Amino acid sequence: MTTPAPRLPHPLLCLVTDPAYGTPEALAAKASAAVAGGVNMVQLRDKDMPSGRLFQLAQDLRQATQGKALLIINDRVDVALAVGADGVQLGEEALPVEAARKLAGSALLIGRSVHSLEGAAAAEQAGASFLVVGTIFPTGSHPGAPPAGLSLLAQVGRAVRIPFLAIGGVEAANVGAVLAQGASGAAVISAILAQPDPETAARALRQAMSSVPRLSGVVS
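Given the sequence above, the corresponding structure tokens read:
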């Protein structure tokens, strides 16, 4: 009997891995420290890593997150199922949500990355479990992408019923504004991985999130 996918915690603090911030071993160690600091979802993202090495890193991250945080694998449904991950994150040009669901059944959460209100609505209709919406603020990860701003989060919050995270330039100083627009949390890269102490950086983000009343606002 297939075990159903887990529920998403609230608020969600997701660490997205990036090979620019270290070797696979270093990333696994940073992820473990971030989980100790309050990260409750880790997304493995590396589009260029060979399958065998990706599988090994996924196993290491599963060990670091087991019983403590959700593990999400970018694009690779096969790797997610093989390591017992909790879900898969699909880019807008990746496998369709319906196809991923056919492969995974009810075993995995299926996230979809979106950059517009139309994309968010389409992903929800296709059966996505949650959305990652961006780019919200200026970020070095996508220097050529104009930030959508908080207004996109407000629009998505009014249009969909499934949880959504903000991504792109989110840090402790602005994560409260993200939650105020109805987001269930945030996905971050440099706000944790670029810091000298990932555990302390994660704890600062978590504290900033915890201090924000769970209110929904609209940017004019």
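The chain has one domain: 12-210. Try to locate this feature in the token string yourself.
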